[in-house]
Amino acid sequence: MLARQLLRAGNLRHTSRVFSSSQVTPPAPSQSPLEAAYKKYVVDAKPWEKPVIPVMVTEGPERDEKNFPRPTIKLHADPCRFLFIPESWFDMLYNKLGVTGPYTLGGGYIMYLFSKEIWVMDHDLPYVACLFTVLAGTYYKYGDLIARYFIDNMEREENIMKNWKLKNMQAHEDNIKMFEKEIWRSESQKEIFVAKKENVLMQLEAEYRRRANEVYQQVKRRLDYQLQIQTIDRRIAHKHMVNWIIDNVKKSITPQQEKESLKKCFADLQSLAAKA
Amino acid sequence: MATKRFLKSSVNWAALAERMADSPQKPEFLAFKAKCDSYFQKVAALPDEPPKIDWKQYKSVSPEILDSFQKQYESFKVPYPEDKYSHIYDSAAEESKVTVEKFQAFCRLGISRANEHLAIWKAMPPIESMSLGEFGEWLPTFLPDFVERPTFWPHTPEFQLTEQDEEEWRQKLAGIEKGEH
């Protein structure tokens, strides 16, 4: 159909570039981020950049869908006999003339043409036979190829249109999914603010802990200092006392006592030597 | 202690990460999470309360000094830093709630619009069996609009004037008007 011409050659952008009608653009929603996007992509867009906006077309109330349904496009020919005679003709004559009826009718008709010399048997008649031979030869040799070429073209165009429609529908479904995901995602915004508030509280807590630890460390350091002073004091007093006692003892020893102790020592040594 | 102490994070980071998994704002989110983690590590680096001082260990210190130390230490209360900033986030959260509402309304509008269009696409007869007139009725985007937007034959973009061309022509015309040609 002609719509196919619009969507031809697989490049649908070409057709979408052609024109657009200004009367079908739906009104833009006011005061929303959609408005800017709508203005950019729909109102201010070049004709060929405009989005494809379908419009619902409803049939009138008098349309008789039951008796006159929508005609569908016929993509393949009706079955034929002898390559070109429609099967429906044979069906039509079957009731009147039986199985051989159409052949009788056709053969009789040709005999009639020959008999009355409407179709004159002249020198060119053998060419008819030659023509049919060549046609048959072409059919059997290249028939499939030629048919495939046309059927492929037809199917390609059909697929282009079907896929284009599917692509548009898929785009809308993807959009819906994307928007739903964004809504779901935006619900986590309050969590982010809780986290931000917690960051403040965490910093306060860290500061408090640092202060408490500082107080503890300082007090402990001073206590340790006191403890060390006490121990050093005691050690110095101890050492001083020992020194004092030793000095006093040394002073109290007289030379007489020293001599006596020496003598005593010699006597001890001699007695030890005698024993040995 | 004026403010409540921070004890445990109430943010469900796993759920947040799941939501942000394939978001375009993921790098920002990860940076924010790293910052939060660094604050938490600072808190976790020090104990909840400082360890108790073992006063018996310092018996040998003169009891007057020890007593004064103990009394002062135990009576001293470490001041908790004043919370000046968290109220900012309360008001910011309120503000963001409005923004989020707006954004969600926008998304819902998009969904409803997409649903409308999808319904039309579903009701449309197959394009391959349409006539040209029907095609124009269902998809008026492709209808020629000769009045509002005339185009040059053969009405494909390659043959249309671009903005640059139009600018050039405007300048040329201006030049002609001045008599410069």
Would you mind describing this structure in some detail?
Chain A: F-type ATPases have 2 components, CF(1) - the catalytic core - and CF(0) - the membrane proton channel. CF(1) and CF(0) have multiple subunits. Chain A: Belongs to the eukaryotic ATPase B chain family. The complex is a heterodimer of chains A (about 280) and B (about 180). Chain A has about 280 residues and is mostly helical. Chain A has helices spanning about 1-5, 10-15, 35-45, 85-95, 100-115, 125-185, 190-250, 255-275; strands at about 80, 85. Chain A contains 8 helices and 2 strands, in the order H-H-H-E-E-H-H-H-H-H. A two-stranded antiparallel sheet of chain A has the order 1-2. In chain A, a hairpin with a 3-residue loop joins strand 1 and strand 2 (about 85). Chain B is an all-alpha fold and about 180 residues long. At the A-B interface, helix 1, helix 2, helix 6 and helix 7 of A face helix 1, helix 2, helix 3, helix 4 and helix 5 of B.
The best one-word shape of chain A is rod-shaped
**Class from helix and strand fractions of chain B:** mainly alpha
Q: What is the total tally of β strands of chain B?
A: 0
Q: Span between N and C termini of chain B?
A: 86 Å
* Beta fraction of chain B: under 5%
Q: In sequence order, what are the helices and strands of chain A, one letter per element?
A: HHHEEHHHHH
Helix content of chain B: 55-70%
Could you state the oligomeric state of the chains shown?
heterodimer
The shape of chain B is elongated
Query: Mean pLDDT score of chain A, rounded?
Result: 83
**Unreliable residue stretches of chain B:** none
Kindly state the number of beta strands of chain A: 2
First-last Cα distance of chain A: 146 Å
Helix content of chain A: over 70%
GO biological process, one term (chain B): proton motive force-driven ATP synthesis
GO molecular function, one term (chain B): proton transmembrane transporter activity
Protein name (chain B): ATP synthase subunit d, mitochondrial
Subcellular location (chain B): Mitochondrion inner membrane
